[in-house]
Design a protein that fits this description.
Blueprint lengths: L11 H15 L5 E5 L7 E4 L2 E6 L5 H17 L5 E5 L7 H6 L3 E6 L11 H17 L2 E4 L2 H11 L4 E2 L10 H6 L6 E5 L8 H10 L5 E5 L6 H10 L5 E3 L5 H10 L2 E4 L8 H8 L4 E4 L2 H7 L4 E3 L4 H12 L5 H14 L1 H16 L9 H12 L5
Parallel strand pairs: 1-3, 4-5, 5-6, 6-7, 8-9, 8-11, 9-10, 11-12, 12-13
Antiparallel strand pairs: 2-3
Amino acid sequence: IGHKDFPSRSGGVEVMVGGLAASLVRRGYEVTVYNRGLQKGHNVYTTEGVQARRIFTFQKASLNAMVYSFLATFDALTRDCNVIHYHAIGPSVPLVIAKLFGKHTVCTVHGLNWKVDKWGGFASAYLRLGERVAAKYADDLVVLSESEWNYFQEKYDRTAILMQMRQPLPCNLIREKYGLEAGSYILYVGRISPEKGPLDLVEGYLKAHTDKKLVLAGPFAETEYCTTVQEKIAGNPNIITTGYVVGDALLELYSNCALFVLPSHTEGLSLSLLEALSLGVKCLVSDIPENTTVTADYGTEFRTEDTDSLARALERDTARPLTPEQREAQVDYVRTNFDYDVMLDRYEEVYHHVIGDPLKEIPSQAKAHSKAAAAQGGAA
């Protein structure tokens, strides 16, 4: 709730809602978006798997968002939704009604709109009310800039989630828990299952001449394949298994590896690969199109299921770290081409957090800011 139309690229809110809604559907979620203004014969429709519902409102600018957001909220309350996500502070006033009816809510602040000159009098006061409602009642509050994060922390003592590309973290948790130092290891993140190729990686690593350790970050199930992998690595002090890792520990693993490897035999759009690329990490992938179209000019490859090719690639790539300029170009490439896919992972964590799913954590960027605020005397 909050945008004007879907699908549309008429403004920043519309672009974000469009990308987020369609991407959530591709992940298997049911998504309804509420558009502003009825049209004859075109008020309920489905596009890209997203259900759109048009809601009556007035054309007068000062009433448009207010009337629409209340009516959209009342409609949403009649439907079996888990989370209502409000975009922008003006449409967030009825969020408090959703809370009274027991709905989980998220608000993304797209700017402090009351600062805009064109809004005055009633409209400006209403926008400030939406800001207060979002700060006080939203289960999770999402902001898109450092200045907004600081604003809500200082004015409302509300720790928001800063929704931007994650920033690398130094070795702390992984040094204490696994004895790992920056640049000292090769990283795999994912399921320990045949289609992901971790056994290929283990065999290639055992053939390679490298002083780097190998870290397998993923859960081992009680399967024959996992047993085979465990037998291969048994007693090898240079191969570390972490099990399921989330939050800051996982971000530290990505941030400090010498090389991220995705040896998959089949793949969709690998979010672990996007995560690594977005942090400026050097990436090595199997040469299936699903991987190489993502890495483009910003990763290296080896022949799929060829452990000799993989061993040579491990030796080559661990000896050639990326320059700062190459890292920066890689991060810009991901931000330009895959921003919504990376952001979607953050938003999915937020949705699971507000409904109380213990397997998901809020983005570590928010926790890092909370700690920084506390260190500076702020209340986190």
